[in-house]
Amino acid sequence: MISVRDLRATYGGFTLHDVNLDLREGGCLAILGPSGAGKTLLLETVMGARRPRGGEVLLDGRNITALPPEARRIAYIPQDLALFPHLSVRDNIVFGLPSRAARRTANDVITKLAAMLRIEHILNRRNIGTLSGGERQRVALARAMIVQPRVLFLDEPFSSLDAATASDLLWSFREMRTQTRTTVFLVTHNLHEASLLADDVAIMIGGRIVESGPRDRVFRHPSSVTVARFLNIRNIIPMSDLPPQASHLVTGSSNGCTHLAIRSEDVVLSPVSAQRGVGLRGRLDELIPCGSSVIARLTVHGTWRLEVVLNHARAAELQRSLAGEVAVSIPQHGALYLHDTQDARSNAPGRPSAGTDVPRQDDEDASASPDPRLSPDPRSAKD
């Protein structure tokens, strides 16, 4: 549906470098990255609010790079939602419809959207200022969806909400997208949002797409240290630091790779007496309760640190081993082999990095503003 080819754009001193992406019809593509990675600049360039310096955007094979946003049949929800404070909830929702006649006959559609988004009780609210953050978000979604866009562009749509409200709205939006099969271009830094909503993901660092593909493949099998760190894989170890007892983790699959990554949930800890043979040993340094699970921090062979996620029963079993030795079991299938794209000696949470590996351009994501034509003043709008 949407294809982005060798797209280049600049904002201030920030540059997008030769971005290539594909968004299929009915799918959701999530652009993931830290603040300042260039996500908002990419979104605004793809939707037509900014002109690129090179490359092209195709819609169903047609070059739309020079088309303004209003000619693309898209909808956009910015971070600040851009609701109109002097309009009622209902008038905010119908504002994007092309004529007064369309607005007058939209009651059935409004009712359907309100039911999907669970905002029936506020449809007749005249003062937008009395809405909660979650209600405002749902109104913005209804306003975007009523125009039946070919593509819905979302820029960090849930970032301003508390965790419980954001989770509730995420599930509502997921259900609505399943029903409507709306094509979504999502910008977020939140891995949970991408996990629930996206079919495909693209990881953006410093204005470049460093990895992209189906969500499960990228999340389960990242190929570089940079991407693994962004995905919060905590145990990243230089291959040169592995002791002989971990030789079973070095296989043909690791050829040419510089680092080994191990997911916290794939490591098994047990009292030393429960495991025969030499194997890996670690000193259990800390047990940290975190809601439904416990994080164990340990030092293995005195050189590298591991974080392991345990259930409370296993943590209680290991409590007596605190500050003592435990057996460490790492299955070969739990090992990820990574290419080093940054400092080969950095390790999270083991060796501290000498510095950040992500350019910080916080002003880019925060201040990049879309084309004003996307949120016109309703008082000057004409049918």
Concise synopsis of the structure shown:
This protein is an alpha+beta fold. 25% of the residues lie in helices and 28% in strands.
What does this structure look like?
- This protein has helices at residues 39-47, 89-94, 100-104, 107-117, 133-145, 163-180, 191-197, 215-220, 225-230, 312-318, 362-367; strands spanning 2-11, 14-23, 28-32, 54-59, 62-63, 74-77, 151-155, 183-188, 200-205, 208-214, 235-238, 259-262, 268-271, 280-290, 293-300, 304-310, 325-329, 335-338.
- It has 383 residues and is α+β, with helices and mostly antiparallel strands.
- It has two domains: 2-207 and 364-380, Rossmann fold (3-Layer(aba) Sandwich); 232-342, Beta Barrel (OB fold (Dihydrolipoamide Acetyltransferase, E2P)).
- The strands form four sheets. It has a six-stranded mixed β-sheet, sandwiched between helices. A five-stranded antiparallel β-sheet has the order 13-17-14-15-16.
- Strand 7 (151-155), helix 6 (163-180) and strand 8 (183-188) form a beta-alpha-beta unit.
- The chain is globular, with a radius of gyration of 25 Å.
